[in-house]
Specification:
The complex is a heterodimer.
Chain A lengths: L16 H30 L11 H34 L14
Helix pairs in contact in A: 1-2
Chain B lengths: L7 H34 L10 H34 L1
Helix pairs in contact in B: 1-2
Classes of the chains: A mainly alpha, B mainly alpha.
Amino acid sequence: MSFLGGRSNANASAVNYDKMEMAVTELDTVTDFFNRMVSSCYTKCVGGRYPADGDLNKGESVCIDKCVAKYNEVQKKVGEKLQSRGAAAQASGAAPGSGSAFGSL
Amino acid sequence: MDFSNFNSAEQAHMTKIIEKKQMQDFLKMYANIVEKCFTTCCNDFTSKALSSKEDACVANCTEKWLKHSERVGARFAEFNAEQASQ
């Protein structure tokens, strides 16, 4: 019998690959979120203007701080909305995932 | 991301994965900076070489992006720490 998964005998040297995969997915999600946030806030606060120098001026710095806070807020709100829609859809017995490309599988 | 319930084999595995991802992330960032700064700075194609103005622009652009990325990272880390302690 394989020692991966199966019995949970708390073997200190076993690697739980499901746990690994979840952790990697989470890592990927956070990295993607961060990269999008950097890109969006650059567009909103610094813009594609010809850079006068290599430093961020006060206005840009303050804008970036606010942008990060707002971006995180939006992420929270969207997450809540999606969760509540999912819960409502489940309660009313609608087909789960019917709004995505994989809904008809 | 809580890695405290990982045993030592899992932590070692995770560390390798994180290192690989950090390298890939760095390469992606490099490509992004090149594209962004090229778009911002290089608009005159009458010459093959970069003019000194374009050269300075690229240097400033790169510096600006890196500082910006650093600042976003710092604020994000603060936000996460705040969320974790709630």
